[in-house]
Amino acid sequence: MNHWLVKSEPFKYSFQNLLRDKKTIWDGVRNYQARNHLRAMKVGDAVLFYHSNEDKAVVGVAEVVKTAYPDPTAKEGDWSVVEIKCVEALQEPVTLASIKANPDLQNMALIKQSRLSVMPVAKTEFQKILKLGGLK
DNA sequence: GCCAACGTTGGC
DNA sequence: GCCAACGTTGGC
To answer: Would you say A29 and A38 are in contact if contact means Cβ atoms under 8 Å apart?
Structure first.
């Protein structure tokens, strides 16, 4: 199983929306690197849900339920979507500041490549964030 | 194929 | 609101 992190602007689609909807189509990705990560996702992979801008924090956990297929919202170009479902909210959001301050999390793409919206996360990093978030 | 100009994202 | 980082576009 692989681990991932996806970003969303909370006022566009928040983790609370996902808790309400139970599952969603992750569409609108228009970046090749991010798209390639989407295509590498497998059913059952765990996904950290990060709020950019306002919150700047990981707020919840989701899971891949459908692998990549063509993005129905793309009028042109070769883009993909996946479907994810909510798993659970973190007890405490793990902020970008606390990730930056944690020596074990310095290699995360979240820090190194701030603009990337879909990225792989190492298993150890994933578990560390759950722990910081008050889960497990 | 290089590079300047420009656009977008996201942190501060 | 500003700016850094980075992707994309277009001229040469």
So the answer is: yes
